[in-house]
Design a protein that fits this description.
Blueprint (H helix, E strand, L loop, with lengths): L14 E4 L7 E4 L4 H12 L9 H23 E4 L14 H5 L3 H14 L6 H7 L1
Antiparallel strand pairs: 1-2, 2-3
Helix pairs in contact: 1-2
Length: about 130
């Protein structure tokens, strides 16, 4: 029977990504399992608009939720890396402060790599119907 479960520690499923924005830097990434994808969706579904809510409050709530989603993704998908702070300490992506201390370009590149890896598969049937 085909295997349908995810094993977080199965190193054969991890993908090494060399960073373009950090010479010599790399991250080993793994895909989120279904439960983690559901948790990720739960974070974003908490963003709701209540009638009468001020725009600035909603924007602040959205920014906070975005940060929580990003922290969750970094903590659950980065299995190893060789990135350090200015003191030579290996960054701990389980720690939100370490995630937030990343150089902006490096953080954006890692976030994009994580996002690309966790996109749902494209529906080939839809594409065939649209051609």
């Amino acid at each position: 029977m085909p295997r349908a479960t995810s094993n977080k520690r199965d190193e054969t499923l991890w993908e090494r990504k060399e960073l373009k924005t950090c010479e010599g830097g790399f991250v080993l990434l793994r895909k989120l399992d279904y439960g983690e994808m559901q948790a990720r969706r739960a974070f974003t579904s908490k963003m709701s608009v209540k009638s009468g809510r001020k725009k600035s409050n909603f924007e602040g709530e959205m920014a906070l939720m975005d940060r929580r989603v990003q922290a969750f993704e970094f903590a659950h998908t980065i299995m190893d890396h060789n990135l350090e702070d200015e003191g030579g300490r290996k960054l701990d992506f389980q720690n939100q402060a370490d995630v937030e201390s990343l150089d902006g370009a490096i953080g954006e590149e890692i976030a994009r790599l994580i996002d690309d890896m966790n996109q749902p598969p494209e529906d080939d049937e839809e594409e065939e119907g649209n051609s």
